[in-house]
C-alpha cells in the first residue's frame, strides 16, 4: 500500500551550518522510513516568511531561534514542529508547539570541561551582541556564567560587535584589545565556529600564541570554517542531525493524529573534534612557544626546521635542544605531527580527494602521506577516511 504523499515545508537557512545539519537529519529520517514527503525549501536555501501562514501544505518544521519565525507560524493552521536552542526558563518556549532543542548548557559544559582537561586555569567566552535573534547565544552565556559560579570564579564575556564590511576594522581592533587585556594562559569558548575563527585571526594579527597563551574552542564543527582557519579549530559537535530526525519523527506522528503539543526534547552534543587551537601545553620556553605558533600557522606549507629557527631567531641546534628539553621531541616531529593532524581533519570531511589533502597539508606526494599514515597510525589514508565517514554516518 502506497503512503499518502505529504507536502512539508522546511523553514531553515541552509547557509548556517546548524540548519544544514538539522535538514540532513530530516533527510536521514525520510531515507529510513516509509514517510512520503514532498519537501518545500527556497531555491537558494534561505528562510523567507512572506505568506507562509497561507501555505496550503500538510506540515512545517522550522528553526525557531528567530522570534519572527515563531510569530509568523503562530497563525498557521497546519502542524508545526519547532527546532532551536534550549532555554532555562520554560516560558521562553513557544506555547502549544512541539520543540526539539540543542542542549545549550551541555554544549558549554563539554567545551569548558575540555579546556579544564588540557590544564587551563582561566576561562572566557566570546559571544554575540544581545538581540532577540541571538537569544540562544545569551543562553550559552548564562550556562557559562553558571558553571563559573559553581567553581567560585568570575566569568569574563566579550560580545564585540556584529561583523560587516563597514565595521570589520573596528571589530578586529576590539577583539585584539580584549585578548590583550586577558590574563594568560586562558581558554576561550566561542558561541559558534564563525566567532572562533574571527578570534583566531585576531590572535594571529596580535602575535598572541594559540594555544599556548589563548586556547580556543568553537561550537558547530563547521567544515567550511575549518577550511578557512590557519590553525585547525577545535569544536563541539552539536547533535543537529539527531534533532532533525527527532523533529521529522514528531511531525510524522502528528500527521497520523498523535498529539505532541507539549513535547519538549533536548538533544545533547555528539562530542568534540579536538585540533590544534585548544591543545594547550604549559610551555615555559619563549622560543619554543613562538616556534610552535609558527608551525601551527605554516606547517602545511612545507616549512623545514631551519625556517622555524630563523623565524624564532636562534640557531637550529639551539632550537632542537630547547624542543628536546621542553617537549621531548624534535622540531621536525612537531611539524610532521601538525601535518598529520591536518590531514586527518581533511580526510574526515570527505569532500576532498586523498591527493588534494596530501598537497594541502604539505606532504610532497600522496605516496609519502600514505607511508606516514601507515607508520604513525597503522592504516592507509583511504582506510582512515572510510572509518571516519562510517563512524560519522552511524553517529549522524
Describe this structure in words.
There is one protein chain. The chain is an alpha/beta fold and 396 residues long. Helix content is 47%, strand content 14%. It contains 15 helices and twelve strands. The chain has helices at 17-31, 67-73, 104-117, 135-150, 168-181, 193-206, 223-227, 240-255, 286-298, 305-312, 316-327, 331-349, 354-360, 366-377, 381-395; strands at residues 6-11, 37-40, 59-63, 80-85, 99-102, 123-126, 156-158, 186-190, 214-219, 234-237, 264-267, 271-273. The strands form two sheets. The chain has a six-stranded parallel β-sheet, with helices on both faces. A six-stranded mixed β-sheet has the order 7-6-8-9-10-12, with helices on both faces. The radius of gyration is 23 Å and the shape is globular. The two termini are 30 Å apart. 42% of the residues are buried. The model has no long low-confidence stretch (mean pLDDT 89).
